[in-house]
Amino acid sequence: MKRTTGYHWRNSLPMLFLLGLTCCQPKQATTGDTATSDKQPSTFYNTKNNDDSRQQAKTITEYELPAPLTDRPELIIRREGYTTSYNATTKQPNWVAWHLTKNRTHGNATRNESAFMEDTTVPAPRATLDDYFNRGYDRGHMCPAADNKWNKTAMDESFLLTNICPQNHGLNKYEWNDVEMLCRDWAHRYGAIDIVCGPIFRNDTPQRTLGRNKVWVPDAFFKVVLCRKGEPKAIGFVYDNIGRKMKMNEHIFTVDEIEDITGIDFFPALDDKTENTVEAVSNIREW
User: Fold this and answer.
1) Of the listed 106, 141, 169, 251, which one is catalytic?
2) What is the pLDDT of residues 223-241, one digit of tens each?
3) For residue 78, what is the enclosing H or E element?
4) pTM for the full predicted model
5) pLDDT for position 283
6) How far is CA 235 from CA 92, 148, 217, 224, in A?
7) Cα(166)–Cα(85) distance, rounded to whole angstroms?
8) What are phi and psi of 173, to 5 degrees?
9) Is 37 helix (H, G, I), strand (E, B) or coil?
10) Helical H runs in 169-254?
């Protein structure tokens, strides 16, 4: 359930709305897969209607997708392994969401055979490799390469710059990587989890940018995780975009708290009672 206390999206910015998609569609889509399958269809963000396929297929819900954004630029991009909400102002995602199954935690695709790529499917100006070159920040994956070993296309698409944010090297190598590995452990343990992560921009400092195309440098990053096996539960993390040692238990947040920080409504496909319950509690001992 979205909470707005304390949230600001750079209020002085003019709103450039790229999303020309219907945001009031049902949170259902048609497919032959189950809710924990590896291939997921679109829900809020897909208005295509195919009566024949709907009659022949089962209906599933993509629980990982946040509610559509109306207060900032948003262009929804569907990839093999994730969905991203792209922001043309910041030149990076508002969020990246994916359904991580046990089967997706391993595979033969390797990052050594992929390379970072400019995403030419989004309008210019956009982030380029030159914007990141020698700027002092890593090209930090939101949906990790290691979550995409199951498929070569998924691995390659994880290196598109629309899945990337400027990230401090120490954070990328240590604390953020620790959370990514923990999520893969949970996917293996529970069979499947739903994940959303992305950058946080605060109003209290001048906006730092990189390169000719002015890629915004995040002040922090968030990650929220939902497990629907057994008694549903959720947990969140927020890390400042800095390179000092940080203890994980000091950076655990509830989903409600991260909704306050980001202004994003996570896991809206859950029934209200479940959503209100799981988003109010964040206890890593329960995981």
Assistant:
1) 141
2) 999 999 999 999 999 999 9
3) strand 75-78
4) 0.85
5) 97
6) 24, 22, 25, 6
7) 16
8) -80, -30
9) coil
10) 169-173, 175-190
